[in-house]
Amino acid sequence: MSKFLEFHVIQNFAPSNLNRDDTGAPKDALFGGCRRARISSQCQKRAMREYVRINELLPVEHWGVRTRRLKKLLLEKLAERDEQEAGIRIEVALAAAGLTLKGDSTQYLLFLGTGEVTAFSELIKQHWDVLGAAVGSPAGSMDSKETMKKSKKEAKAGIPPELQKQAKAIFNGAKAVDVALFGRMLADLPAVNQNAACQVAHAISTHQVEREFDYFTAVDEVAHDDAGAGMIGHVEFNSATLYRYAVLDIGRLLANLQGDRELLLAAVHAYTQAVTRAIPTGKQNSFAAHNAPEFVGICLRHGTPLSLANAFQKPVASRRSEDSLTELSVSALAQYEAKQSAAYGDSRDSWLGLDLTGRWPEGKGVSCPSAATLARQTTALVKISMEK
Fold first, then answer.
1. Which of 51, 285, 304, 343 has the CB geometry, 3.0–4.6 Å to 274, for a possible disulfide?
2. 94-127 pLDDT, tens per residue?
3. In a domain, 39, yes or no
4. What is the pTM of this model?
5. Structural domain tally of the chain?
6. How far apart are CA 77 and CA 95, in angstroms?
7. How far apart are CA 386 and CA 383, in angstroms?
8. How close are the terminal C-alpha atoms of the chain, in Å?
9. Burial letters for 286-299: b for 16+ Cβ neighbours within 10 Å, e otherwise?
């Protein structure tokens, strides 16, 4: 039976604009018939990846990188070689693998493990002469783009089939944890696509939200004779208690990491911390909304994952209550989870929780006093489940 690790987070943000749309306004969505604040899944995943990288929660060789500038990364790995000759060999080797360049960039963003980039540079070093022979002439003799295009096409045809096979085989994910978690699609190499092991929902407010506007002026500190402002403008923002949900397919993650159980446990530990602590950076210099969650519930679910977003289909409200929106949200979450688990849950489902509101039912799962303890307990829970 499939096992899923779910993250349920209630987090209140002070006035902020953490994730804005193309007009600069904080993102929102209609849910339950009213307007809700929203932080996109892409924004959350980016924040989590950056948190793991900045805090070095995983070894560098297990990071991923999203870029169109693969040639630049490979040139850095081949810095001891002549740059022009290395550039030609890189382009020919990438063509042999099935990837083409437009100028010095790939045609679309690639999501690669750092191990894949390193391995590809090593392939070029190992077969330097073969790739040079495939080009057929020194890089400096190519005096036009047309000649270069023709030469690369002919060069690819001249590369031994075994080398082409090796070039394609390098793109196996290289146990990059974020690639394994969030998946990738390479249009030119469908065989190396990875289905995401982790799904992240758009965070939505548990209550109705209206946009607010901050009108600001800036003073020109040199033009002292100017009575007016040097600049005026406005920034949109909101404040909301958000429900965040993410779910991790443990079996899929293990497969994406090529069966490496120790790395899987390291990934669970790192990303539990990231889910709990990572905050998007949008407009933080203006708002400093560094507000940690007041509730993090983690459930090891058997059979099928269960989002609890519909606990807030009817918005919570606190105008006539002494309870905060956060407290009301955790209470609503607990009540809805009880109904859902009774209908769809499994007796083996296990909960862990970090609750600062006191509203999560006592005795429902293991209570953790800190985020660090929660990460350790979550890793231990996953480890035990894998041994059964």
1. 51
2. 988 988 888 899 999 999 999 999 999 999 999 9
3. yes
4. 0.91
5. 2
6. 18
7. 5
8. 11
9. ebebebebbbbbbb
